[in-house]
Amino acid sequence: MPLVRAVAKASTVVQQRVFASPHPPLCMDAIRSALRQLPASVFADILEADDAYRIVIDLPGVTAETLELTAEDGRLRIAAHRTKDVPASFRYVREDRDLFIDAQLPLPPGVDARAATATIERGVLTVTLPRTGGASGATIPIEPVEAA
After folding, report:
1. Residues near 18 by Cβ (< 8 Å), separated by ≥ 6?
2. pLDDT band for position 33 (cuts 50, 70, 90)
3. Please, are residues 18 and 24 in contact by the beta-carbon 8 Å criterion?
4. Among 39, 50, 37, 59, which residue's Cα sits nearest to residue 126?
5. pLDDT at residue 6 is higher than 60
6. Does domain 23-141 have CATH number 3.30.70.890?
7. Range scoring the smallest mean pLDDT among 4-18, 81-95, 98-112
8. Where are the domains of the chain?
9. What tens digit of pLDDT does each residue of 87-100 get?
């Protein structure tokens, strides 16, 4: 029985330290794990600053009009679709690029979803999630960036 109590106490101390940290590693592991579930043709980066998280995802062929981002119940949902133009004289031998992407990523604790911003430029989505406190959910507007 003393071993069980010692393990329980150690677990509580670890949880207190992890969740008291401004950068909880367990949450970042959950985000990385969710990003690994994206199709192989989608590349993503996670960046972190003292005041915000930034997620950058390559979504070739996706525009602001064909993309919807929502943050709700502690999750960021990315729903996107793209079209493929195949000339009439060609046919698919192999087709690996998904037309639809529907992904959900866990939001780190303490993120203000209502203050989130997003841009998409040439198929690269950048979502910035400020660390300003507990808003519960929001639809995130996407600003298209005109190519120079």
Report:
1. 24, 25, 26
2. confident
3. yes
4. 59
5. no
6. no
7. 4-18
8. 23-141
9. 999 988 887 777 88
